[in-house]
Here is the input.
Amino acid sequence: MSKKCSQCGNAEAIYEMSGHLLCLNCAHKIKQMNHMELVANMQQINFLLGQMEATTGLYGLFPKYQIPEAPPIINQQGGITLNNINVEKSVIGSINTGNIGQIDVALSNIKNGGDDELANNIKEFTEAVLASTELTIEMKNEIIEQLSFLSGQATVPRESQKGSIIKAILSTMGKAIQHIPSLLTLFEKLGQFSGL
Here is the structure.
């Protein structure tokens, strides 16, 4: 008789961690949390090593951690849905889901800050880029990476934003999609708001 996951209670348990039976999805979430904690620790150690080097004036004596990439998002049933962005099954595995996750978190923060219209425009543009058949995978990943930065900038106060970098990215993105009218229309809405 199969046992259910002790966390979600929905799926069949196929893992055991610390005495708990877990389904694939819940086990993966725990691995993602462990990965985030590991990365935070590595970043802290790298920072402290940098401080030691700056204090002593002796650079390059200590090796620094290479920060590992985040584990991929597991897709069990079609596309993935984050809190704000829907990602179709056909693009999973070919795009950087870490950047999509960062955009999704930024959208939640933008909404919490009261700018639902900007959040909706970023969401629509992101989903249109992912669904576009006129962009190559490389172009999609570049635009999504740029959107990740822009959406993060939209969550900080105007005086703390990196204005020249934002302008350069908007210009680069505009050139990349200038021959795709459906994307260009959505993209133009992004520059109309004070958050970018």
